[in-house]
Amino acid sequence: MIDRCGRNIDYLRISVTDRCNLRCIYCMPEEGIRLTGRENILQEPEIIRVCQVMAELGIKKIKITGGEPLVRPRIPGLIHQIKAIPGIEKVTLTTNGILLKKQMKELAEAGLDSLNISLDTLDREGFMKITRRDLLDDTLAGIEEAMKYPNVQLKINCVPLGIEEQNLCEIAEFAHKYPVHVRFIEMMPIGYGSSFTGMSQEKIVSLLEKKFGILFPYEGLPLGNGPCKYYTVDGFQGKIGFISAISHKFCSECNRIRLTSQGYLKTCLQYTAGRDLREALRNGGTDEELKEIIKAALSEKPDGHHFREKVKEDDTESLCMSQIGG
């Protein structure tokens, strides 16, 4: 799938739910969001059909997201089915880890290739402040369980907020002590995230280098599906990565599209541009018709975001990340 800018789109992120067991301050209000009725969420056969059609068009990598995807039943079974689709090379999952301890074995047996676990702090009070839930032990138990399955690549995602309760060096220690990649993800000015400035990549690098030594650009084989820039540190078992979509814009290399839990195909995180696949799925649309809808969406994929301009355009996305898919 080559878009109008000549970018090869081979990566699909699928949100399977807008529900979550946390209330992170940059993602959701404390009282939660108005949840989508279950009848309006894509069902398992519909997700599989979209994946099959996407694979025929050229999608090779699929990430399952939410909300928190593990609050939805039968995710290991869904991953097993997606892995069986011809043309799909990798299936990955992003989770907050709270429900992972009980499900990790099944996920590994289903063929999961890689796992991203969100962890913004190791400070209990800080965790409660950020997530509004006292569930740090559950996330840490999920990480510990995931480490028992070395065939599933493990990454820890941290969103620096620039608050006192976040010790980024403590998070980086996971890559120091274990074969785990730690990525620092720049705050996206989407929904509630627009209220936070976060920390610059340069400041984080400075903090880490004072503690651990020089970060050297990693030039080996790709470690994931997306645009993360990785670094090696002497003595570290894992890598340190940065996903800085605003300050180090990588739109010219974008290879992804997103499917919301309601079946809306988004071609850029900032904008509402896209197409409703659920309508076609539930109204007798053929696979060829689905392909034409997907191609039409791709033909309108923006050349890039314009977050730094801070101009609210008519088609700027107003949903929060849990509704779009993290």
Keywords for this entry:
about 325 residues, alpha/beta, TIM Barrel, twelve-stranded mixed β-sheet, 10 helices, globular, GTP-binding, metal ion binding, GTP 3',8-cyclase, lyase, iron
Detailed description of the structure:
The chain has helices at residues 44-57, 75-83, 100-110, 124-131, 136-146, 168-177, 201-212, 277-282, 287-298, 321-324, and strands at residues 11-15, 61-65, 90-95, 114-118, 153-158, 181-185, 215-217, 229-233, 240-243, 256-259, 264-266, 274-276. It is α/β, with parallel strands linked by helices. It has a single domain (11-324), classed as TIM Barrel, CATH 3.20.20. Strands 7-8-9-6-5-4-3-2-1-10-11-12 form a twelve-stranded mixed sheet. Strand 8 (229-233) and strand 9 form a beta hairpin. Helix 3 (100-110) packs parallel to helix 5. The relative contact order is 0.16. The mean pLDDT is 89.
Topology:
Blueprint: E1 11-15, H1 44-57, E2 61-65, H2 75-83, E3 90-95, H3 100-110, E4 114-118, H4 124-131, H5 136-146, E5 153-158, H6 168-177, E6 181-185, H7 201-212, E7 215-217, E8 229-233, E9 240-243, E10 256-259, E11 264-266, E12 274-276, H8 277-282, H9 287-298, H10 321-324
Parallel strand pairs: 1-2, 1-10, 2-3, 3-4, 4-5, 5-6, 6-9
Antiparallel strand pairs: 7-8, 8-9, 10-11, 11-12
Helix pairs in contact: 1-9, 2-3, 3-5
Keywords: 4Fe-4S, GTP-binding, Iron, Iron-sulfur, Lyase, Metal-binding, Molybdenum cofactor biosynthesis, Nucleotide-binding, S-adenosyl-L-methionine
Binding site for GTP: 13, 94, 155, 256-258
Binding site for [4Fe-4S] cluster 2: 251, 254, 268
